[in-house]
Prior knowledge:
It contains ten helices and nine strands. Helices cover 48% and strands 19% of the residues. Strand 4 and strand 5 (43-47) form a beta hairpin. Helix 4 packs across helix 6 (187-198), helix 4 (155-168) packs parallel to helix 7 (202-220) and helix 5 crosses helix 6 (187-198). The chain has three domains: 2-145, Sandwich (Jelly Rolls), CATH 2.60.120.280; 155-200; 204-265, Arc Repressor Mutant, subunit A, CATH 1.10.10. The radius of gyration is 26 Å and the shape is elongated.
Amino acid sequence: MRMDEIGWHSVHGADFINEREHGAGDWVFLLIKSPCRIFADGEMRQFPAYTWILYTPDAYQKYGADGAEYYDDWMHFAPDAEEEALLRAMHIPLNTPVTLPKGTEISKLLREICFEFYSVHLHRLETTDLYFRLLFYRLHEQLVRVKAVPDAAPVKERLQQIRAFIFRKPFERFTAAQFADELNLSEADFLRQYEAENGSRFPDDLIHARMVFIAGQMKVYLAENQTVEEIAQLCGYAGEAEFSAEFARFIGKSPQAYLDALRAENGI
């Protein structure tokens, strides 16, 4: 990617308007952070704050304030062939205004790109390239969430990925509602599809992942001679009974029996 120029949080008066009849000659990504007017569908139309538009080099541009002070982030650039292919694969709209559900996230990324590009860091250009790709991945995620573009990965593949992620990060604060929102599903539909695809219930997998992790930690810290009650408390359980029941369900023996077997095996 060739970066030509970038600006973050530019401020203009209530009468600001910008027009480029024959385009800018390079690609322009514009994130307008105030209510604005943009030429679209043959006329100047009003749009809310955090509307973005990706202009191609020769596209007509006209946008400006909507009766109040105007703020925007902007970037003039030229993607390489691989990046252009990525934009097409993600169905990123061109020359079309899009209002973001989470515009501040995109503005923060543009700030990072701006600061990095104008820095004196040794790898500033390489880092700028990485941020550039991250920017469009984040845009695509938001477009998928509002169902403006198709999801690049089928739901069944995402459900498999979620299960694998749970077992890699067993003590993250996962909720069914969180994943359902990411997949544009109701919570009930997420739980049903998760079980159909993975052959196990989402709540069970959360507990299973945590019990497997705890069993591994019990081996590592065996010499500390902790009691089952202490282990239950460290793992956030209010009582030993609930912890023991869940541990036995997924590990196949009670925590005490598991500890006794480990100690016998290690001569402790």
